[in-house]
Amino acid sequence: MYHIPFLNIFQSASTNNLYEIQPHPSVNSKFKRALDIIGSLVGLLILAVVFIPIAIAIKIDNPGPIFFTQERYGLYGKTFRIRKFRSMVVDAEQLKTLVKNESEGLIFKSKDDFRVTKIGRFLRSSSLDELPQFWNVFVGEMSLVGTRPPTEDEVMHYNQRHWQRLDVKPGLTGEWQVNGRSQITDFESVVDLDLQYQKKWYPMYDLLVVFKTIYVIFARIGAY
Q1: Residue 58, Cα to own-chain centre: how many angstroms?
Q2: pTM of the model
Q3: Among 13, 15, 41, 85, which residue is least crowded by beta carbons within 10 Å?
Q4: Percent of the chain beyond pLDDT 90?
Q5: Are 74 and 6 a contacting pair, CB within 8 Å?
């Protein structure tokens, strides 16, 4: 499905006609898609190797599902489902109102979120919780590099500028992750970085961001 408010931003106030959507060059880039396929296959191979030990650790630490599944919004507002290794307690969503949001705007961040399990903190800081999303990259719902795919409670408050984030495929990593990660707590700053990526993008730029991401992960920069 496509989120109707997204289509509305292309509607002319004077003529009530829809503008023709001009896709971002990255959307139809064969190089970007080839990089996504190769990268996702490598990621899925890593997932196959670490799946059993991570699954056992999650079960021992906090019995319940191995995966956390959620609907997200992708390219042009099209919805899809992502899976992550579960890093929070089972009833985390019901407990969300008890956690103070330390971010500004349409993102939710809390450094000392009591819902995060012990193994969950390790999975998050190492980004291992994101490994299952390589499947989304493989099937074309996501890219290795893009913007963080938002949730419904976020996009329902989007304005026209915010929707521009989804002119490209959502990514496992992006400008936000390599330029501050969890240290960036203002949503408008995240949007600035996402739009900056769209302006700076060229085929090899994704490869540069991937290498930066690997460094950020191993150096544990901005992670919690």
Answers
A1: 22
A2: 0.86
A3: 13
A4: 67
A5: no
